[in-house]
């Protein structure tokens, strides 16, 4: 099967990293196609960028010329999943929700550790809409921007590990979700410090997408995610 | 003061209608500027269209060349308000939330009557994120598309009145919010049939925006709606 | 239009102050009539006093001899709004709910800072009944009594500013509501310290009441706030 | 021990009936003192009347000249319990909460059947503040006024039994609370029709009050229900 | 009347202690029969043990040869109450729920103080299923095992008192429930330190069970707690 | 990898059927071992039976002599998952939760269709504890017992299809979970009637268990699911 794993920002190195994470856990026979949007911000760290990325991801997926079996939206706490679900019959898996769903099988409560403090409300809102907050202990921020994860990995590790430990010790989290597409490499260190299972959203999403495909399950089309009605669009998609 | 009232779709006649509704309730001294996005769908009836409209609204507002005091996003159950709040210091008022907030001052529970059934979950999700569902009795759909409201007003009236009456009689709503930018003219008929107050989102939003401006209140910038961080955007905004 | 702004306690100086706050934000053409109950406590700092004040406010409004367009109940976290809504057709606006509704347009979460710790549960309960707690970060108390605000304003400012800052820094509030009818003068200091918008309940209530009147909206009479049924009252209203 | 059972309205025959219900279940050695407020409405069927009754009940209890061990507020869905708790050290038991607490020991979900439809939101709000709605299946109204229960008992029985049956069959209630101080005599008929346990609030409250007294438990005074602070009251209590 | 008070573990000394607590508050004419399961763990400190105890308690009660009027399950945060309710017509009272229900009559919020930290989620889950978490301030653990309460009572007192004080001061609890069958003797010390009412679950359960019996109320049999359907059991009950 | 799939009842034919369902979706290289408890009821249709089954499942898994990688508890709405999680390091997947988690990736709301009406509250409670009720539209019962599914498959199909259709049309479910271990064969008919995705719990659980194993994730041991403390057990496990 072929899974499209779509980065939400336009930083190619991050797409590459996400694609490698996905490929590392994919089953034999699963082809991972990592895509970068054609337009939008170099990183998503707020609502404006996230809304723009949502559209850029949708357009990228719509333009993909080959058949595929599922799509993974590889941004943490981002907008847009519902739009992709309307456009496609195949399953769409958001990594925020994939990580939380997976975490709930492993411990009584889970926390998310993300980068910037301003991303916390976005993640909380995504999880609220997804109905996944009852067992959410906390969303904590390390205070680092998305691209800092690539620029200064050591500081990133230290700051994230500290927040993960606080989530376990103060908020009673029993599982940690790493709340950023670029955090996957940090899993080992967080496990070592906290002793709790650490879920990477991209990896979780790959297994969930594969599972849905294997079970023959597709997006429900009876109401919320019915295909868009035929209509006129003005000046869209963009010419550039 | 100057209020930007931004239609979410690209149908100019609807922009005109929304602008007239807004002007009809604006205080003396308030200038209403009704804007139509430069790109996007002719109507918003689902998530894909709504996400696209969110971006189109933001770009339109960003490009507006004159000073203004507040922005009203004149689409019911649409995405994007949080993005506008990041981009602007002035208040941003979503008509879905404006109607609900207003309704809560008038009765113990309120319902929303909207057009298509598929819009119901979008409205529910918007109200959930806004923290306005505790006193929500129901969101009901008349089964008509947005543009049907202009094409066959008589059928629209009949269908909406029927759902409003059901909301009052079966769901115990004590106030009705008309859940569509183009429904404003129907208020009188719904009041006549149900005997309950009927809130039009555009009108409610105008008074709330004016109030926030008069009180000197602006969007909080300390966390969720802080301005976007400086960064590179690829191929955006679109050239067309 | 004429707005009745009813103090909940019998301290005339506080009524005067409330009336001035209201007048300061009222539109041209709005007449503010500040009323003091004929009986009841000199300040409301608990349930017994608040229940008594609720009745005293209702009797005062019932006895008002001239027409009026809306009523503002100018006590924070007090009982009684639902009773006024039964007695009147015109809108009734509680300042606790007015402040919270207004705050929700400005930030992702809001906190209330009030006077005595024992008032916190009353405010929480009022907001719970009003369906306005989903985005409530916290209710914090400065530890000062209502009348201390008049007696020692400097200490009041310091204590309130401290709690407001804690609400922003520890509870992630993005907006502060000043939770006491007599706190209005402190807005400036709290803004200076925290950098977040500060909402005064009386001012917010005036703009909301004016808006409802302008929109021609009145209290729903179909169920919860239907007029009292005709019946015998024993020894009421009191002779004194 | 001595229990004050306070009617919320000024209809002496209803006080007598409530007192008899209470005495019928009281333990040997428990003295039931049934009190009627000195002022207020002949029945409580809405917020205005309920707020007035709240104060009338408090004044009656304050004026009671002998020692007592607990107070039962014998009105369904009425205001005021929190005020009594401030005024007294001894336990205060509201019959709405007593019935619901008792019902939760008997079945997975419970419903309340009350008189007028307009009382439904009052009861819902009382149960919401009491934290007793998670297992509430529904509050249903028979459409009869409080005094109809005395005037036309046969019709009252029929209407209440019908709603109780609907609560069990449609709302999945497994226990019924009779939501009116005057409904106690109807228990037998409702049991016969529905086959589920039926809880009478007055009876439940008597056993709970007795239990609290026997366990030596009193109202907590550390915060919400601390005694009122010493202060001036204007023209209160009333002279009549 | 005869009440069965069933310990959840197989430690006879704890059964004796529980029986004495129960007898100390039982009404004249109430016979307390304290039972120890025939199999299972010496203490319940986790889910495996609690599930096993649930079955052991049920089998012990099923085998009891004499008539009885109600059953008290005397373990804090344990599984099994719903099973007993299916097996019996008489009321079944769980001490976790009895304590919480009682606490809610005494203060605005309550906390539970228990032994091991790992028991906290069990208690939280029990209260969640019972619909008793809206007014729950916190569940706190003293860090001591169940049997430590017998082995080193002084340390137990100190640790529990410390957590109770923290619940009042930090979590705003106004009532404390002692969350362990063996904690009853500590009530006095906790009251002395915190000044709030302290509820012992066994004592509360005895009065509730007696009340239900006096009121003639039994477990509802219409749905959730209907008797088990007739069927084959393999190798059960155990031969030993 | 080896997955233990444990039936909750002692009916071997149902174990066989469950094992076949599991094997049908297992990846190449996954060995499915279907186990039947050594004691307990022939079917689980209530709390008593479910509690007994919980223990029987745990004992069966404890006694399994070979290594294994994950356990699937193949009963719908049953007790016991938390106990298994304490006993094991490997992941434990409950089919109720597996189905719900999977459904949430496919539609905005989901419903569960089960057999007996009395099972509905058990399923609701399981989903409540699992934090999976926010997007639950309804739990509906076909009115058939567990073993009827084997005895009269045609009637089972008809009754289940009818409830599934009602869930979609009346409750706005967009996905159906078949809420019984023995319902798997009915998927096709329900899909044909409703047009929505249908999730079988056993199949969903197999893919989730495989995913957790592939990702190297195990049950968190820091708090709720820490191993049982060493202690004495009386007369357990049973000799028979």
UniProtKB/TrEMBL annotation, chains A, B, C, D, E, F:
It comes from the Bacteria. InterPro entries: Asp/Glu/hydantoin_racemase (IPR015942), Hydantoin_racemase-like (IPR052186), Iso_Racemase_Enz_sf (IPR053714). Pfam families: Asp_Glu_race. Belongs to the HyuE racemase family. This is Aspartate/glutamate racemase family protein. It comes from Streptomyces cavernicola.
